[in-house]
Write a structure and sequence with these properties.
The complex is a heterodimer of chains A (169) and B (159).
Chain A lengths: L4 H7 L3 H23 L5 H8 L3 H8 L7 H11 L19 H5 L5 H18 E3 L13 E3 L11 H7 L6
Antiparallel strand pairs in A: 1-2
Helix pairs in contact in A: 3-4
Chain B lengths: L4 E9 L2 E8 L6 H7 L1 H4 L4 H15 L6 E3 L8 E4 L6 E9 L2 E9 L9 H23 L2 E3 L5 E3 L2 E2 L3
Parallel strand pairs in B: 2-6
Antiparallel strand pairs in B: 1-2, 1-9, 3-4, 4-5, 5-6, 7-8
The chains are: A mainly alpha (169), B alpha+beta (159).
Chain lengths: 169, 159
């Protein structure tokens, strides 16, 4: 072994193992931070609220549990805080058919620059307006879930380009 | 037990340092001994253990919740890294988020640590050394530099 034994050891650890450890620890620290910043919240109380043992919570906080998305969501619900933030196309508050949410959907400008065409295709293949009017009217636009072929004639791509945050035609 | 030993620097990152103990009756320091053990090397959590040390060293610090401390013991700093089912034990003395001393360990394959002789001996050796180190630190004969490297007399003579 070389003089710096640890560097030598670390060099031979697969990158995916390092990334997994980092990610698990990131999540663990996020939870630890929420506990620390919440008055009266302890590992024991969290365990009770989660319906888990304190030992389990302790293992989570040491980055030793490969948490499922379901469990992360359960933690978020109990803690009333976001633990895992995932970049998403869809606004967190949006539900399919919720026209108001769709209108306020904000898309990162870089994202739109690179993926605007793909995104447009997704939108038009998912939602079909009740009216094919080419004019946009915030109060009357309605969207429904598409059950048939994509509405290729609705709206203009320029609509998406022009507004940057408009995901309907 | 009255063994001579010295403290050896293993590695450091910014103001975090890892040390280990080299006993006079062994050829390698405890950290190297642990990672030279074939049983340890073939353990399924071997890579994770190393990755965990790397992550704590470079990103987080040696925070207490990453370790399990031996509650049966008087010391509040002796423990091991919590990895998987906790059978793979690398004992350590966690002095702060910036400074740790690793001992050795092994695979604990019995219900109690004391029943796996090799693992128990590793723990007892670390406990012995830690007592001496703590005494020297409290007397001011060993101290930390600003980057948590140790300065002072790092040799401990035995009988």
């Amino acid at each position: 072994m070389s003089n710096n034994i640890f560097s030598e050891l670390l060099k031979n650890v697969p990158e995916k193992v390092k990334k997994l450890v980092q990610k698990q620890n990131d999540i663990a620290e996020q939870i630890v931070q929420i506990i620390d910043n919440t008055d009266g919240l302890t590992q024991r109380i969290l365990a009770e609220r989660m319906g888990k043992t304190e030992s389990y919570i302790s293992r989570v906080l040491s980055g030793n549990v490969n948490l499922t998305l379901k469990t992360i969501v359960a933690f978020e619900k109990v803690l009333d805080e976001k633990i895992l933030i995932v970049p998403t196309l869809i606004s967190n508050d949006m539900e399919i058919g919720d026209a108001e949410s769709i209108k306020s959907l904000s898309i990162d400008s870089k994202f739109t620059q690179y993926y605007k065409d793909d995104f447009h295709e997704v939108i038009i293949s998912t939602f079909q307006p009740l009216s094919t009017s080419s004019t946009t009217n915030e109060t009357s636009d309605e969207l429904v879930e598409s059950s048939e072929s994509p509405a290729t004639n609705i709206g203009e791509r320029s609509t998406l380009h022009e507004y940057g945050n408009v995901a309907y035609a | 037990m009255n063994l001579g030993f010295k403290l050896e620097h293993i590695t450091g990152f910014q103001n975090r340092q890892i040390y280990s103990i080299k006993f006079d009756d062994k050829e390698l320091n405890e950290f190297r001994l642990f990672f030279s053990d074939e049983n340890v090397k073939s353990h399924k959590k071997y890579n994770k253990l190393i990755a965990q040390i790397g992550d704590l060293l470079t990103r987080r610090g040696f925070r207490r919740y990453y370790f399990k401390f031996d509650q049966c013991d008087d010391s509040e700093i002796l423990g091991y890294l919590r990895i998987g089912s906790r059978k793979l034990r690398l004992y350590c003395a966690v002095y702060s988020e910036n400074f740790i001393i690793f001992g050795s360990g092994g695979i604990k394959n019995t219900a109690r640590r004391q029943e796996t002789i090799e693992v128990d001996q590793a723990f007892e050796r670390l406990r012995y050394a830690e007592t001496k180190i703590a005494q020297r630190i409290s007397e001011g004969n060993i101290s930390y530099l600003s980057d948590y490297k140790l300065t002072g007399d790092l040799h401990f003579s035995g009988d």
